[in-house]
Amino acid sequence: MKAIVITKDDDIYKSELTDISEDQLPEGNVTVKVDYSTINYKEGLAITGASPVVRKFPMTPGIDLSGTVEESSHSEYKVGDKVVLNGWGVGEVHPGGLAEKARLNGDWLVPLPDAFSPKQAMAIGTAGYTAMLCVMALQQQGVTPDKGEVLVTGSAGGVGSVAIAILAKLGYTVVASTGRASEEAYLKSLGASSIIDRNELSEKGRPLGKERWAGAIDTVGSHTLANVCAQIKYGGAVAACGLAQGMDFPSTVMPFILRGVVLHGVDSVYCPKEKRLEAWKRLATDLDTTHIDLITTEVPLSEAIPTAEKILKGEVRGRVVVDVNA
């Protein structure tokens, strides 16, 4: 069967599409015939070796997959069940979804919601599921549509695109931050009311700025996150889930102790199953499925490696779904 395999020998890092046998699959109590996987920013890092995402070699990347249970000794799943997987270290320490089959721990799986096809579930993927977790975090902190504008950074990416669509459907006024002015029409079609240039946020700023946003979803980190926090209105909140600009956070305590701002970290990898199920349930009602095709590009497994390289260069918008059987 076909799979993307990453190897590292004598410091030579290589990713290639190759054939593997089923007996090379790892231990696990559920075997899934994979229909679709995805290319996220993390796959870009893993496949290119730009960051030490992969911690065990050889490794098949792919933090997402959707497919059909082929074998199972897990109490919750039987042959023929449709399932989705996001995270749990898959594609980093456990072979992932960019292969025709995957063997996994059934505790990591969630049932495919009836509202989505396997392809649509991957159009959502970890990015969309993370976006939903971020929206849930803002709501938990009391950020409601009547409080004011909500900012989404890295808005043309996967998390940003889905976050805009969800927030807009829920009645929020969404401002999209992007470095790609050419994507203005795309972002407004998802529900953004206005666009700002990411350069307004990406350089070193003041510890406390003018109050602008009731809340924000940040996928960027570094100076951008610091500036976002400095511009949140009193009692507002930021859901932080990414580090596209960097993993540093050059801020001060001033927004938090003078304006009561909450910085809510969002983890999608080891998020408890109960919250995962709630996020997927919410996606089925809060995400307008007419937007899914708009934000999605489909590629065959043979194009996964060059697509991963493009995503790090900022040449990909929205979501990339991989048909592993094409």
Tag the structure with descriptive keywords.
2 domains; 15 strands; Quinone Oxidoreductase, Chain A, domain 1; 326 residues; 7-stranded mixed sheet; 8 helices; alpha/beta; 6-stranded parallel sheet; Rossmann fold
Protein model, in words:
The protein is an alpha/beta fold. It has two domains: 2-112 and 295-323, Medium-chain alcohol dehydrogenases, catalytic domain (Quinone Oxidoreductase, Chain A, domain 1), CATH 3.90.180.10; 126-265, Rossmann fold (3-Layer(aba) Sandwich). Helices cover 27% and strands 28% of the residues. The chain is built from eight helices and 15 strands. It has helices spanning 41-48, 118-140, 158-169, 184-190, 222-230, 254-258, 273-286, 304-312; strands spanning 2-9, 12-19, 30-39, 64-72, 82-86, 101-104, 109-111, 150-152, 174-178, 192-197, 213-218, 232-240, 262-265, 296-300, 319-323. The strands form three sheets. Strands 3, 4, 5, 6, 7, 14 and 15 form a seven-stranded mixed sheet that branches. The protein has a six-stranded parallel sheet with strand order 10-9-8-11-12-13, with helices on both faces. The protein has a two-stranded antiparallel ribbon with strand order 1-2. A hairpin with a 2-residue loop joins strand 1 and strand 2. Helix 2 packs across helix 7 (273-286). The longest helix is centred in the middle third of the chain and has 23 residues, at 118-140. The protein is globular and about 60 Å long. The protein starts with a strand and ends with a strand. The model has no long low-confidence stretch (mean pLDDT 95).
